[in-house]
Amino acid sequence: MPYLVVARVFEKLAKTTKRLEKIDIMACLFRSVILLRPTELLAVVYLCCNQIAPPYVGLELGVGDQVIMKSLGESTGRSLNDIKSDFTKAGDLGVVAVASRSRQCTIFAPRMLTVQSVFSTLISVANSEGKQSMTQKVRLIQSLFVASRETEAKFIVRHLQGKLRIGVNEQTVLAALGRACAFTPPAKVPPVVDMSKELMNSEQMEELECHNTALIKKAVCELPNYELVIPALVRYGIDHLNEHCHISPECNTIVYVCVLCKMIYFKQGVPIKVMLAKPTKGIAEILERFKSMKFTLEFKYDGERAQIHILSDGTVKIFSRNAENATAKFPDLVNSIRKVKCNCKKKKKSHLKPDITSAIIDSEVVAYDRKEHKILPFQQLTTRKRKDVNEADVTVQVCVYAFDLLFINGQSLLSEPFEVRRSKMHQAFEPKQGEFAFAHYKDTTDPEEIQQFLDLAVEACCEGIMVKTLDIDATYEPAKRSRKWLKCKKDYLDGVGDTLDLVVMGAFHGTGKRTGTYGTYLLGCCNSENDNFQSLCKCATGFSDEQLKELTDVMKNHVVGKKPSEYETHMDCPIWFEPKIVWEIKCADLTISPVHCGGVGVVHESKGIGLRFPRLVRKRDDKSVDDATSTDQVIEMFQNQKHMQ
Ligand code: ATP
């Protein structure tokens, strides 16, 4: 299938801001792929999501603007300086690539780009390693530029930069797939529901689309790997998708080679997308939200989320909040879990009871002082190396606090209520002091006891408490920021209900004591609807002098020549950054602002939401810009705040 078809669809998508229109445009593309080239659906979906592999595989393109400009220069015969100066003027390397291409003459027309060729070249770029890797990457990218037509070069640049800028996120892609499957079922097996259009009115069609989208989302949440989900969708059809794609830490035997990139994938240890919590502002709100429901309180530990997969062959894998493979970061933890598993038949000392073969635990890993038997602050954990950690070199010990059990002995527990999951977890594992513990909990609805529990949590170096439904409406919801889980942080009590994780957009030069550093930063939230970032505040507090220097050094690597086109703000910064870095920010409250643009058009026709008295809490290296606080969340906080007043 020609890549040009996809590039033209991207152009069309960029021209509309309406989500339903985008879904429709994309669904038409998917329908034709399903009909004509079903085996290429995987590559098309990957290109639309702008991904090359699941996050836990850790495959990265490793390409910066310099490499792209060099490849562009070599493929068009233009000098690097000319390209750089065009880039400064246009502020968009994609536009420069198209303009450079159109000036180029070739004797022979190069072979046209196909969806497969573009995708496999991107994979090869990511796989280029060793001394010659940069030369190799330049050569591969050059081959794409040479063969590109119309606006293909623009989107090739954007694939390489990791941002398509067409206002489409993964959820939109999945909704479009749901719609495509309603009109053009991709099954060799006949669908269970009769989807004949003549027999269905538009309402029924819409219902079917929603139903399909829910099935696809469920599959992707439980098995976030398109290499597994898309071929299963094509092969078995939408109605049988969830039978083939579901949560499972098993299995060493299911190994397959990806048809596109020839990489070997193991089905074992695919992380499921984690469930997240909604913020609350205090005990009154908790009681109001969960009135007449059975709920429990837990300590909210301040560390790193860890989804621990224990496989039947003794393999232990650890995945981060963002489904990245963090196993190599915690060899001590892996070993302690593995050791106890081996010990379990002989001694009773294990975390695992002898009859446990496989499990997925949801937990928080925290820094722990094993002599004093106490939890250490989050900052201690951040001093641990992130990669290639040698167990012998570990100085900061960790303890796992398990708070949920998602899978046990081949059985998914996702649809079980939390009360059942928690009790199975307590039955299955044995705590070991300083290494493996259950989240401390209390089942109470008494406001005084809740307050005491919150105080206790803060004393124990926790961030606050989590409040979770126990029986009704208490299933595990992968990938959802769910109302079944509420968080109440100690900071909330004097703030707006939650800290925000914001994208660092720009900066202002420091003056006085801060001369030579960036003294003030512009930060914003992520608007997935328009695929842009909306400014929320200027932040100049919460930094120590050393931190200011350190952050300036880090941020210097992300400076761009011009305000990125995906930034929505009325502020004019002397320094702009590419959207890469996320910081956690606390504020006093949210207010309507004439210069900031959070939720503009929703809360006010021309003004947006801004933060008052913002303050840096910490860097969030564990979050990508796509995980930053969304515009919808900011609007919800703003409306909640009004509701609470
Ligand atoms: P935060 O900045 O609060 O960590 P987040 O977006 O990472 O925000 P939330 O859903 O807002 O995640 O809060 C839940 C997080 O709190 C989990 O991701 C987990 O890392 C941590 N956590 C600590 N203790 C618990 C617990 N007992 N139950 C659930 N999550 C817990």
UniProtKB/TrEMBL annotation:
Q: Which UniProt keywords apply?
A: ATP-binding, Cell cycle, Cell division, DNA damage, DNA recombination, DNA repair, DNA replication, Ligase, Nucleotide-binding, Nucleus
GO function terms (MF aspect): ATP binding; DNA binding; DNA ligase (ATP) activity
Query: Taxonomic lineage per UniProt?
Result: Eukaryota, Sar, Rhizaria, Retaria, Foraminifera
Primary place of residence?
nucleus
Q: Which residues form a coiled coil?
A: none
> InterPro entries per the record?
ATP-dep_DNA_ligase, DNA_ligase_ATP-dep, DNA_ligase_ATP-dep_C, DNA_ligase_ATP-dep_cent, DNA_ligase_ATP-dep_CS, DNA_ligase_ATP-dep_N, DNA_ligase_N_sf, NA-bd_OB-fold
Intracellular or extracellular location(s):
Nucleus
* Name of the protein described by the UniProt record: DNA ligase
Query: Is the keyword Signal assigned to this protein?
Result: no
Origin superkingdom = Eukaryota
Q: What class of enzyme is it?
A: ligase
What span is annotated as the signal peptide, if there is one? none
Which NCBIfam families does its entry note? dnl1
GO CC annotations on file = mitochondrion; nucleus
> Which positions fall inside the ATP-dependent DNA ligase family profile domain?
391-527
Q: Which GO terms describe its biological process?
A: cell division; DNA biosynthetic process; DNA recombination; DNA repair; lagging strand elongation
Question: Which PROSITE patterns does the record cross-reference, listed alphabetically?
Answer: DNA_LIGASE_A1 (PS00697), DNA_LIGASE_A3 (PS50160)
Pfam families in UniProt: DNA_ligase_A_C, DNA_ligase_A_M, DNA_ligase_A_N
Asked if Magnesium is a keyword of the record, the answer is no
Which family does this protein fall into? Belongs to the ATP-dependent DNA ligase family.
EC numbers for this chain: 6.5.1.1
Reaction catalysis annotation: ATP + (deoxyribonucleotide)n-3'-hydroxyl + 5'-phospho-(deoxyribonucleotide)m = (deoxyribonucleotide)n+m + AMP + diphosphate
